[in-house]
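Researcher: Here's the sequence for the chain we discussed earlier.
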Amino acid sequence: MTERKVIINELLTFIQNKIDVLDELSVLQICASNFTDLEVETAKIELYSTLSCSQHIIRRKGDDKIKKNIKDIIKVLKETDPDDQPIFVARDLNRLPPITFDYVDVTRLLKDLTFLKNEINCIRTECITKSELTHFETSLRSELTQLRPRDVDMSNTNDSNKLTRTIHTQKTKRLRDKITSKASQPASRTITESAESAASCAGLHEPDDNLSTSNLSLEIDSVVTPTYRDIVTTQSLPMTKKLDNQGINNEFRLVEYKKRKHKTNMRGTLTNKGRIQVMLSQASVYVSRTKKTVNEADIIAHIQDMGEEFVSVELLQQNVETTFNSFKVVVAADRLNRFLDPSFWPTGLVFRRFRERFTKTPAERRNNNN
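Model: Thanks. This is the structure I predict for it:
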């Protein structure tokens, strides 16, 4: 067993010891009100690096940054095996926040008490008392004592009934085997021979000495004579798939689907320029947050000053009037990384890959409405 690492951190110590006794909302409120944003973010980075989490550390932003970081810490601790977690200790015990009734959900405590009370009432109503158990045991003993003499008298009768049922089962099985063997013969002889087989099966064996003549007659009458439908159904079995004695198909065939071969595109490598002109791939960049006085010529001039080439620059029309202009810059795909470099654009300018929005023409809208 590997030795667990000891780490000094008051926030992680509190969360590790309280997530099993407090709900997540209470832990979140206590930690957010007693620890600073820097302490929470430092504890999160230390936890992820210690556990070597496969998850990527998400840099939280916004007003709820501290609460989101605490939720990430609680999630990692709950999903990690306690034996794999390090031991978190506190150097300054005064930094550990106290748990007061301000952070305890009283409604949840009342629900738990009500549930516990109902469970106790169920136990009282469903369980019997010691006196009732003693009375039941006494009555059961007396009934068993009365039934013992009758068990000795009934033993001989039970043995004879078991023997009768065994012989009846054996004769029924022989009759079914006889019918199955006759079913493979021509249909014109099936009905007559099935009746003869029923009669012959009934008298194949001599009656045993231990059974009376009346018992044998009842057994012979209980054998059901097969109908023509049963014989035809049995005769058609050899024409179908091979079945076992229970009628279960034991033949299986493995079905395999051929994998489709994906066709991959290849590119030419000839450097000599011939008559064929190659159209290079293009990509679009969205540029925004410029002043209203900036136009396409200014964007083109900036790109040329940076020593880059472009395909086109387009001023985007806004559906709602704004205080800034936005542009769509089309460039070669192999130079896209240069245009997505923050050092390429002035400070404060917003840029990203352009997302194409396919809008319907007025004619298409009218056709859809019709």
